[in-house]
Amino acid sequence: MRFGVIGAGRIGKIHAANIAARGDCEVRFVADVDEAAAAALARATGGAVGSVDEAVGAAEIDAVAICAPTDLHADLIEKAARAGKAIFCEKPIDLDAARIRRCLEVVKETGAALMVGFNRRFDPNFATLKARLAAGAIGEAEIVSITSRDPAPPPLSYVARSGGLFRDMMIHDFDMARFLLDEEPVAVAAMGSALVDPAIGEAGDVDTAAVILETKSGRIAQISNSRRASYGYDQRIEAHGAKGMIRAGNVRETTVEFAGPQGLVADRIQHFFLERYAAAYRAELDAFVTASRAGQKPRPDGEDGLKASLLADAAHLSWRTGRRVALA
Amino acid sequence: MRFGVIGAGRIGKIHAANIAARGDCEVRFVADVDEAAAAALARATGGAVGSVDEAVGAAEIDAVAICAPTDLHADLIEKAARAGKAIFCEKPIDLDAARIRRCLEVVKETGAALMVGFNRRFDPNFATLKARLAAGAIGEAEIVSITSRDPAPPPLSYVARSGGLFRDMMIHDFDMARFLLDEEPVAVAAMGSALVDPAIGEAGDVDTAAVILETKSGRIAQISNSRRASYGYDQRIEAHGAKGMIRAGNVRETTVEFAGPQGLVADRIQHFFLERYAAAYRAELDAFVTASRAGQKPRPDGEDGLKASLLADAAHLSWRTGRRVALA
Amino acid sequence: MRFGVIGAGRIGKIHAANIAARGDCEVRFVADVDEAAAAALARATGGAVGSVDEAVGAAEIDAVAICAPTDLHADLIEKAARAGKAIFCEKPIDLDAARIRRCLEVVKETGAALMVGFNRRFDPNFATLKARLAAGAIGEAEIVSITSRDPAPPPLSYVARSGGLFRDMMIHDFDMARFLLDEEPVAVAAMGSALVDPAIGEAGDVDTAAVILETKSGRIAQISNSRRASYGYDQRIEAHGAKGMIRAGNVRETTVEFAGPQGLVADRIQHFFLERYAAAYRAELDAFVTASRAGQKPRPDGEDGLKASLLADAAHLSWRTGRRVALA
Amino acid sequence: MRFGVIGAGRIGKIHAANIAARGDCEVRFVADVDEAAAAALARATGGAVGSVDEAVGAAEIDAVAICAPTDLHADLIEKAARAGKAIFCEKPIDLDAARIRRCLEVVKETGAALMVGFNRRFDPNFATLKARLAAGAIGEAEIVSITSRDPAPPPLSYVARSGGLFRDMMIHDFDMARFLLDEEPVAVAAMGSALVDPAIGEAGDVDTAAVILETKSGRIAQISNSRRASYGYDQRIEAHGAKGMIRAGNVRETTVEFAGPQGLVADRIQHFFLERYAAAYRAELDAFVTASRAGQKPRPDGEDGLKASLLADAAHLSWRTGRRVALA
After folding, report:
1. Which strands make up the sheet holding A63-66, listed edge to edge?
2. Residues of A with Cβ-Cβ distance to C230 under 8 angstroms
3. Domain boundary assignment for chain C
4. Within 13 Å of residue A129, how many CA atoms lie on the same side as its CB?
5. What is the pTM of this model?
6. Which of the 8 DSSP states describes residue A238?
7. Do A268 and C262 lie within an 8 Å CB cutoff?
8. What CATH code would you report for D120-297+302-326?
């Protein structure tokens, strides 16, 4: 498959490198308003610098990887859908649910295959947990507990345009909760505060938050977020059911342990998402390529993107209003 | 110290045995409406069967251990307070907050020393976690996560008169959250459902629940409860702050591990509270005796009992109404 | 059972306290050349100070606990055996195998029940490992690996009269190897050196040593000893067989773990034998009492004591001569 | 660097794929008596089938990767050395120490750079352990304990020509012991038996073995090998010193854990060397390329290969004769 890659930033580089490393895919065009960045990434991956129109619509392109800023996602998806390309788009589709819905209308009309980049579904640890859940290891998941903590908060400039922690950071956890609960949440209660950096609070956002979700049949998910963890990128999931509990933890850099007077010290966990989810990004791409080749719609799809965004909106509203929010 | 023990059931037996095992305490009277039970426990601990009046008020008694059914607690506390005894009472003081408040008035008037049996504060693992928190190991606790799961639900008859999961089971976790947050919660959001046994739902209660608490300064506690865990008595705490994360986990029966084709199998965790909290009950008694001897008020005290009950009431209300509940 | 306790030192105190704490046993006499020590221990355990003759031979005594210095063990065993008492003796019976053999002759002639204090067999972790081995968890144990490290070396004065590391410290591991292999070793190869303290080497002993044992059918045990471990009392066992591997590790003081920039720090292990083997000493006493009451010979017995000593002698010889030593 | 690869079997495939995956290296020739295997590997890695002479000596070749059967190693090393190529050779150089010595003479005369494939030095876990040791984490390593167990024994035909467990399997552990002890062993004691498969014993070999090594200053290494482990490829190292203990354990397939009635089950370990040492093979190649480019001699070198072989010979002799064997 020949890809057009839109966006040569941090996440664009990851996807482009993974595309280039596959024997069966190639990066044809890289587009970015920062031409130097586009040129460097094109050079590194064997592609050419192209315009957005080329990267999204050129005849020789089979698939588009949208790694541009969020506010361009929906437009680019529509453009690529109309051009008949397979579409991989980073999360979220848009910060506005109404805009997402209109975009998905276009996707539907054109019959385009759209995959949204909830990479954590493809982490080998979480994917194995999901597979064992699906195989009945614990029975139905009654309580799903998700902990996500970043090593350090993003720049304030990023926070300001991020849509807030619930839409920017916790959206991954909403997708994971839906993925594991196998049933749509119908109620959301959120609490949050700015404990890491008061400036985040002054910017109208939180850096520390907890949410409970409940599904129609009464299954519960708990989510815990912090924008800061002294010990690295904390990414853990636990699911509890009638037959037992299953969990997937952090990945340590090595298996080395030191025993000294203070106790037994296990090695650090992988520091951030580039290390922790390196395998997940490759597996995600593989799922996209495999489904596209087979003429199937890849998952997570646009509906998954929309539903995670609706949960994020509901959590944001719950936090702002101090009320529990029901979902349609 | 010479104790009168009221109640010769499961918890009465624990406390009476611990009193009798100390060189500096003795069980003088055991009172129970079930005279055979009282006689057996008196025999086992070297005491005598007595009436409630004797056990609470006899001149030779220094301290009263109230292990009777909950609906008798407040009356017994008042009686013992008026008799000038040091009082240890199992949690909760009462299911009704107004009744607790009246009881605590009497305690205050009489100047009695009252300790409420939140035994988990004295678990060596949780007590060590608290001590390290207090020593600044992680900075302020920003997110406290508490997981409590019982191996199996109690009989329905017990459920019916228990006051509900939030008041009967999660009350321990409310006390622990207060203990670790070092600040009073001002808001409670609760969700719950009956997933373990529909009959529990029909009885108007839940068996699976999650709660979020928030303090004035924005610290958050998450609590997760289930009335059933196939793997034993699941009792875990985690606290997250600027400098790191600290947690205390379950206690395994042994350190034995088996490596076979399915992986590495660590031993079972201690099955239920009698095993897991055996040391906690002894340490709790020791704290009571030590404080009483020194003429100090032991903690957790009546106010701690009241505040945990108010949190339980608020969580119950939040669950019933689907609203977040503010605390005065 | 009424006990005469010989020796009011560190180990005598442990056994006497455990005897006194049982409802069905009592300390009747405590004998020690240090009369103040004897008096203190008698007072603490409710017994009386007695002469060695009283403690070993008085008509009212049922059992003798020999906690005196090693060079008195054999004489005291013989005396107690001739007096018709049940005998518990700390390891080793003697540093000289010939003396052990003569002593066991007397035990045999008199039909006395003699238990030797290889307390580690009764550690709940190791006892569970043994039980699972016996139940076939891994098939036959093909490789048994034993690690024993003390937190710090004993005083040089102790080293000088200890018989050497192989007879004083590793003897426990020889017993454990026999216990787990279920077959007698027929060959021993030992290496050792003084790395912890050169003065130990100058005293003709080692503080760091490794041994391999082989049984007739080719099963192997590895033993590793050091007189020093910065992280506490390191006591681990592993057994490997056709169906898997089973191991028992150190016991941590609590389950508390701290995650910070350096990694995940589990709590310290129990510092030394008083903590680590507290439960083992109680279970050992229980086995002695139970067997004695039932008129059965308790294990480990005199033969076990002899065989461990023969292994220690062989290891010592192997170390001194640089040869592998065969056992008859 | 342009490589000639000799041998298109299992290990040849690993190295050729790693060479081909690097941007700065290429597979130029693949030579194998099995022409179909050579052709397949050449095709997969972008090289051409060549004769041994071409792969070792063609002018366009910079480096030779010797992955042929052991009995060809020494001849090929000499040939490549005389052709002035950088040489990577799988372990061992030869089963006969005299032959190794003659080969190393040629290497010395020609000034060739020779690296021997002790891949475990490059495992990220073991390399980190070594780095921390070198940084003084535990002080000097006083006791090094190495456990190596294969999931299943090789075919008997392989066993017959392998030189025996000590030279074929444990040679890796001898290299690791030297690597970690930082001092040459001067004495070896070995025991071994055929417990996994009697046919291995009938073929004059062992499948279960333990060895102790001692260095001049008294440091000790313990090695434990089995040709079978029901739980996968068991590869563990532990080092003990004055300041503590450091160890590196097995790598689990995922971090998933399941808690059920039998306990807490951690995931399987990586099954065999292809998975466990995938990163090590890449790092080994990188070290070879980096050193060769810098005009430096890579390590482990021919002397390392010789010394590990001499230890293997000594262990084999110790096992056969029942004597401890001294090394010059």
Report:
1. A48-49, A26-31, A2-6, A63-66, A86-89, A114-116
2. 259-261
3. 2-112, 120-277+302-326
4. 34
5. 0.96
6. E
7. yes
8. 3.30.360.10
Determine the distance in angstroms separating the CA of C149 from the nearest CA of chain A, rounded to an integer. Answer: 13
Give the chain D residue nearest C147 (alpha carbons): D145
Measured in whole angstroms, the distance separating CA A162 from the mean position of its chain's CA atoms is 14
Please, are residues A194 and A117 in contact by the beta-carbon 8 Å criterion? no
Q: Could you give the angle at which helices D124-134 and D278-293 cross, rounded to 10 degrees?
A: 60
- Least Cα distance to C187 among C217, C165, C212, C224 occurs for C212
Q: How far is C284 from chain A (nearest CA, A)?
A: 29
Which of B220, B236, B268, B323 to probe by mutation at the A interface, max A CB count within 10 Å?
A: B220
Residue B267 corresponds to which amino acid?
D
Domain at C120-277+302-326, CATH class? alpha beta
Of B220, B210, B221, B189, the residue nearest A194 (C-alpha)? B220
Q: Are B311 and B327 in contact (CB under 8 A)?
A: yes
User: By the 8 A CB rule, do A281 and A274 touch?
Assistant: no
Q: Extract the tokens encoding C298.
A: 């308790």
pLDDT of residue C283: 98
Query: Is the Cβ–Cβ distance between A179 and A121 less than 8 Å?
Result: yes
Same fold, C2-112 and C120-277+302-326: no
CA A227 and chain centroid, separation:
16
Angle between helices C35-45 and C10-21 (to 10 degrees): 20
Give CA–CA dist D47/D40, Å, rounded.
10
Residue B322: burial class (beta carbons within 10 Å; 0-12, 13-18, 19+):
middle
At B70-121, the pLDDT tens digits run 999 999 999 999 999 999 999 999 999 999 999 999 999 999 999 999 999 9
**DSSP 8-state class, residue C121:** G
B264–chain D nearest CA distance, Å: 5
CB pairs under 8 A between C and D: 121
pLDDT of residue A82: 98
Q: Cα–Cα distance between C171 and C129 in angstroms, integer?
A: 20
CA distance D19 to D41: 12
Q: What is the DSSP string of D271-312?
A: -SHHHHTHHHHHHHHHHHHHHHHTT---SS-HHHHHHHHHHH
ipTM: 0.95
Its CATH architecture, for the domain B120-297+303-326, is 2-Layer Sandwich (3.30)
Top CATH class, C2-112: alpha beta
Q: Which residues make Cβ contacts (< 8 Å) with residue D92, sequence separation at least 6? A: D70, D73, D100, D116, D163, D167, D171, D305, D308, D309, D312
Q: How far apart are CA D96 and CA C240, in angstroms?
A: 32
- Which of C260, C263, C267 shows the shortest C-beta gap to A267? C263
Binary contact (A263, C266; C-beta < 8 A): yes
